[in-house]
Amino acid sequence: MSHSTCRALLVVSLLALCTACGHSRKRSGVHGGPMGHLELLTYGRELYDLRCLPCHGPHGKGDGPAAAALQPKPRNYADKAWQDSVTDQRISQAIVDGGKGVGKSQLMPPQSDLRDDPEAVKAIVTMVRSFRPK
């Protein structure tokens, strides 16, 4: 196994451990109802910063601190063509099942602890969609 492959696997393993510790908190919107867009975005930012930012970067451009060690590089969420081509369902599946679960890089760890927390997944999807160029 090459040095760069070992390094990438180490980075991904550490990220998987970190994200496993970053459990979601069940949330509800104002008065216990569903969250509104701003609440989803705020919650999504919290989850994204903890679980996604190390690889995808603070602005979703795939340039997080761990990205240098990864091949292939993480998805650039600020790519308009990609944003136009993907459904929320597909993004949700990639979050929960990881890259391997959607036929992409196995280096993207699954967030399987979110499988039973659709509000947290929706919040992360909302955050990913916020990177779409206007």
Characterization of this structure:
The protein is mainly alpha-helical. It is about 55% helix and about 0% strand. The chain contains 6 helices and no strands. Residues about 15-25 have low confidence and may be disordered.
Q: Topology, pairings included?
A:
Layout lengths: L2 H19 L15 H15 L1 H4 L23 H6 L2 H14 L16 H13 L4
Helix pairs in contact: 2-6, 5-6
What's a concise summary of this model?
With 134 residues, the chain is mainly α. It contains six helices and no strands.
Q: How many E-type strands?
A: 0
- Uncertain parts: 17-24
Q: Tell me the overall shape.
A: globular
- Backbone structural class: mainly alpha
Q: What kind of sheet is the major sheet?
A: none
CATH architecture: Orthogonal Bundle
- Please, how many helices? 6
Q: CA-to-CA gap between the ends? A: 42 Å
Write down the domain tally.
1
Helix content: 40-55%
CATH class: Mainly Alpha
Please state the CA-atom Rg, rounded to the nearest Å.
15 Å
Could you give the order of the helices and strands?
Answer: HHHHHH
Oligomeric description of these chains: single chain
- SS strand fraction: under 5%
Average residue pLDDT? 86
What fold name stands as the CATH topology? Cytochrome Bc1 Complex, Chain D, domain 2
Brief descriptors of the model:
134 residues, mainly alpha, Cytochrome Bc1 Complex, Chain D, domain 2, globular
